[in-house]
Amino acid sequence: MGEDDLTVSLETLRQVFNEALDNLEERVGHTVELDEDFFWSIPREALYDPYATPDPEQLTLGQLTASWDSLKRMHANGDHMNEYTLVWIAEILQALGQRAR
User: Fold this and answer.
1) Domain boundaries in the chain?
2) What is the pLDDT of residues 33-50, one digit of tens each?
């Protein structure tokens, strides 16, 4: 893998993301109801280490409603998006992607 293989162009990511959301919206409409709420959360150290099996004690539960509520609250209040905002967005996107399959 070359050095540039892990360089992410935010402009390209934004375009791909917008296309994906447009496609989903065309297929399902303006809203998506998610059937699940809780999910397994794996610590970053284990998440990106394919050679180690996470210790079950490292696993925690995340909750989509909590992630979504945090995003909605920040948006409604005009709050500055914090460093964890992308993680909350990723959790919601993961569920949307699984649902759309």
Assistant:
1) 35-100
2) 999 999 999 988 889 999
